[in-house]
Amino acid sequence: MKRIVSRKVVISGLLGIALTGFLLGGTQLLWAQGVAKLNVATFGENVIESWPQFIGQLKGFFQKEGIEIKAFFIGAESQQLQAQLGGSLDITTMGSVGVINAVQKGADLIIVGAVVTRPPEVFMVASDISSFADLKGKPIAISELLSNDAYVTRKLLESKGLKVGDYTLLQIGFSNARLAALKVGAVKGTILIFIAAQQALEAGFKQLADANDLIDFPWNMINVKRDWAQKNRTVLVRYLRGLDRSIAWMTDPRNAEEGIKLLAERTKTSEPLISKTYQFMLSSKVLQATLSEKVVEKAVDFMRERGDLKGNFEVKRIVDPSYLVEARR
To answer: Of 1, 21, 207, 225, which is most buried by a Cβ count within 10 Å?
Structure first.
């Protein structure tokens, strides 16, 4: 039987707790001179799914809609959820699994957009691992048990011939924490965001699978509380319109050179590394603004398959594309 071991990386955990503590001080939706100020949680500066928020600000797409965004980097979905349910965050970017699990437990959340519909990640292993067969009996890092990356990791290993019980999953945390665990030898493999994977390659680790080897999975959702969305429909529609324009601009190859320069300056990351990641984003087509029940159904099916979703759960219960539809009118 597969053994699940829970671990936390101290630095990442303390950072998340500090951010959440700050958020729980509480800021509600504010209006100043016709501008709606929104608190939005993202997973980090160099995560592809965070970039539309930055580009939307840098290119003025949100400002044109009268939206001002304050971004909070919170790597743990559980902390994003806590802050959102407490009223300190207006919008979260949790994965579909986290939202479904929260709703199953009683949270009244809805998904109003999907930003990344395929995992923008690669699978990295220690230098002494040459094949998936070498991972048998070895520890492999995931963020949390009920997370997108956990499901995608299991499916990848299964497709490569590793059954449940052939490996040990360790709950480590976000991508940077998993990279740290790989570097110190605590795990032998993990999926990482593209930039972290490039850093792993530079440190002598190996890549066993890229984004094309991973299953299609609703990766990054735009999530709000149902009652908040109903009370602030106009604001949410304006936010989604700005986000939609940002993604359309980013995915146009003609804007790549400018986008790379803007993001390198914004994230204070080397331009060559941002360039590699940007080209990966374009070639893998992982970034898109869309939403349908069919997109989220994939996550529901996997959760049912593993027994993590009980009873009759209808996808339409948590998916409301009407806001994005209105934003595109």
So the answer is: 225
